[in-house]
Fold:
Amino acid sequence: MAGISRRVMLGSVLANSILDSSFAAVAPEKTVRLTHVDGRRTDYRILMPARAQHLGMVVFSHGLKSSNKAYDRILQPWAIAGFLVAAPNHLDSDPSNTVSRTFIWETRIADVRLAIEKRAAFQTVAQNSGQELYWPGVCAAGHSFGGATAQALAGGYLGENEDQSDRAVSCVIAFSPPGPRPGFIGENAWSTVQVPALLETGTADILPGFDDWRLHKQGFENGSHHNRWLVVGAGVDHYFGGLICKLSNDLEAQTQSPALHATVHITVEFLGAYLKACKPALAALASAAAAGSFSPAITLTRV
Structure:
């Protein structure tokens, strides 16, 4: 494990300051507005590294009633490490929106799918900054309800919806994805996801309707495919103490910061391994999983 903590990750040094509120090395930010076939418009927050390089692409779906502005402690490090991050603001980010959850779900899927389909728009943004989307695959990522959104785009079967998968999705990162929920998420909802997937949860990840934190790792335990990775944070809750989604700066956020920092390191290696086919990144992941832990704050396991 000492080796992985000293690695230069994909050419970028993810210093502790990246996870601080100051964000000393902030990735350049832009906005892209895309129009759906029904005329609805979605804004995508775009983060990229400052220095020119070949980029992988990540589409990140925020948690229910959160926003694409509430995850900088995850998205900024990804961008700095060499990825173009496209984060849509879903309809439910507007607190005044009263449309049904079924419709919200459908529009969330559409928001992520549109970003994948309109990849050329993001290629243009990258080229205007002297960079290029080089790798053909896309990572679908998300937190909580956004994790389920990403799961669906990767082939997960949710509720009675038809297959929502997109062949361009080559891997999935799901922070605290929902566990089994009658009428929405079945016991084997992850069994149809065949691309590499990394799931995250914590031993304090308890919400109304999910009174056992282990429900969030259903996709790791019930999946039938290899290349499943699971990060579990000791004492980590649904929001990393207020570092993501529902932001706060209280003592709990400070306490859980090491776990988030370590988790982000692991996700950067995962993105390198499965979006950029980086063999050293995959070897680093395998080494961490073999050791069973990445830091005192988290454990990493693999199937």
Notes: The chain has eight helices and ten strands. Residues 161 and 184 are 9 Å apart (CA to CA). The longest strand covers residues 132-143.
